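User: Hey, my collaborator sent me this sequence without any context and asked if I could get a structure. I don't really work with proteins. Can you help?
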Amino acid sequence: MLRLALPAALLLAPIETPVPLHAGGRVTADGRFGWPGVYFEGRFKGTAVTVAVEADTDHLAILIDGVERTVLKKPGRVSRRLDGLPDGEHVVRVEKLTETQSGYSRMIGITTNGTPLAPPVHARRVEFIGDSHSVGYGDTATTRTCSPEEVHDTTNTARAFGPLLAKKWNADYRVIAFSGRGVVRNYAGGNPGETLPVLYPRAIPGEPTPAAKDGWKPQLIVINLGTNDFSTPVQAGEAWKDDAALHADYRAKYVAFVRQLQGANPAARFLLMGAPAFIADVRTVAAATGATPVAVPQLEFTACNFHPSLKDQQRMADLVEQAAGTPK
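Assistant: No problem. I've predicted the 3D structure and written it out in structure-token form, which is a compact way to encode the shape of the chain:
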């Protein structure tokens, strides 16, 4: 598990002391992160805390004791101090809300005027692998018609089904998801050869460098992939001669991907989610790998560009919880 104790930048008040941080999600040694749903947690005793980050396009929420205090929206390099807290122990948390398909943000450090404490520890670990449904693409929108900027600004991964469930379980989590990507085919056949299994090993989704080994061993891995493989018809010039060939390739490559993940995480349980259009394929993959299939019924899709709404996200969280059972 990666734990950051990043040096305070020069812009931080010198009288404050660095807070050791626990990083949830893939974060490089120098504090960079690009996958959705990354978060940082620290504990301290005092009345003030300063968060220093660098983010060109991301929105980053700052929470104190579970309550959102502010959202930094495309802030650039910024140091934000929150003071006037009751004198006592507090948990500070920074959450990446938006999706970054290229570029990255950076955690510079968190400091306090009080006493730094050891960061929170979570016994349960869950990984969520998927596409825009796992990202929470435009999930807070109240309309299906959204511009790219509106999609960005209404995406809140913290309210997608994975983080919703993980927080209910008080679990550490990772979201390795990328909108528009599938197992063998991306939305409308775009970006051939750059499917989610190809991107999965990367430290930053838009960069080819693989993630460093950090000891992350989830007890549960939930995969929700297939919507982009099948939501648009196969076009002339693509790798599959027809829909049947696409389904066959999907099943074969999905089995290989799950087995690869099982080899790296032999103690993990696997849940494979599937919508009505491809749940039969998912059940075949689950039977071949020993995973548990999770059928997702038709959702409302009232968020941006016919994506899951907050109500849909909660429904998916409930379905995964039912399939996984109550954690011990």
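In plain terms: The longest strand covers residues 88-96. You can pass these tokens on to your collaborator as they are.
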